[in-house]
């Protein structure tokens, strides 16, 4: 294919190219609408500045735990604040977010954890029965971070040695995350039933 004038001396650089990524949406919302409501969950109400800071804390805590670009963090969470924080916090590290479908059975969850080569699993106490049955079936041994949804009042146990809020407290709200180098970089892994 012949070169046209628009192809000459127009290589990608920061002045003319920005990878497409949803990560910039939260950063902008926190800058432009910091006090506007971002998350409502039961009695809990968070604004965009708080949501952004908590997402950065999660990214920082994951990085401190050894998570690197291209590694998978799986979550077994309902539509809770922790899930929304993971949507941004995981890819802020360059890692890949794998949101597990909460209605799958333990063998399929185990397969998914292995296939994704999960390094960290954030799981809600609500789904502890399924996850507890899945973990021995899986070959991978991820770091388990337990989330305890204050809106869930049913039975369930903690499976790991780290609780989500404690894990988050070990992170930095000013974590200097970086955008993906390329829009082809994976930020999520999606399975279907």
Quick tags:
six-stranded parallel beta sheet, 18% strand, two-stranded antiparallel sheet, 31% helix, alpha/beta, Rossmann fold, 6 helices, 193 residues, 8 strands
Quick overview:
31% of the residues lie in helices and 18% in strands. The chain has helices spanning 23-32, 48-64, 81-89, 106-115, 128-134, 164-169; strands at residues 37-41, 44-47, 72-76, 96-99, 118-124, 143-147, 162-163, 188-189.
Question: How would you explain this protein's 3D organization?
Answer:
This protein is α/β, with parallel strands linked by helices. The radius of gyration is 19 Å and the shape is globular. The strands form two sheets. It has a six-stranded parallel β-sheet with strand order 7-6-5-3-4-8, sandwiched between helices. It has a two-stranded antiparallel sheet with strand order 1-2. It has helices at residues 23-32, 48-64, 81-89, 106-115, 128-134, 164-169, and strands at residues 37-41, 44-47, 72-76, 96-99, 118-124, 143-147, 162-163, 188-189. The chain has one domain: 3-Layer(aba) Sandwich (Rossmann fold). The N and C termini lie far apart (42 Å). Strand 5 (118-124), helix 5 (128-134) and strand 6 form a beta-alpha-beta unit. Helix 1 crosses helix 2 (48-64) and helix 2 packs across helix 3 (81-89). The protein is built from six helices and eight strands, in the order H-E-E-H-E-H-E-H-E-H-E-E-H-E.
């Amino acid at each position: 294919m012949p070169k046209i004038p628009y192809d000459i001396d127009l290589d990608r650089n920061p002045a003319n190219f920005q990878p497409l990524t949803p990560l910039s949406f939260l950063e902008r919302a926190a800058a432009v609408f910091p006090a506007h409501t971002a998350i409502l969950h039961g009695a809990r109400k968070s604004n965009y500045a708080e949501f952004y800071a908590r997402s950065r804390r999660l990214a920082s805590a994951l990085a401190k735990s050894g998570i690197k670009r291209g590694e998978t963090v799986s979550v077994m969470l309902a539509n809770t604040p922790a899930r929304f924080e993971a949507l941004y916090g995981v890819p802020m590290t360059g890692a890949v977010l794998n949101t597990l479908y909460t209605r799958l059975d333990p063998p399929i969850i185990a397969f998914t954890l292995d296939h994704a080569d999960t390094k960290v699993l954030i799981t809600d106490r609500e789904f502890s029965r399924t996850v507890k049955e899945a973990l021995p079936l899986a070959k991978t041994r991820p770091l388990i971070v337990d989330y305890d949804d204050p809106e869930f009042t049913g039975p369930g146990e903690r499976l790991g040695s780290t609780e989500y809020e404690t894990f988050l407290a070990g992170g930095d709200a000013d974590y200097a995350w970086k955008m993906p180098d390329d829009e082809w970089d994976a930020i999520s892994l999606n399975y279907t039933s």
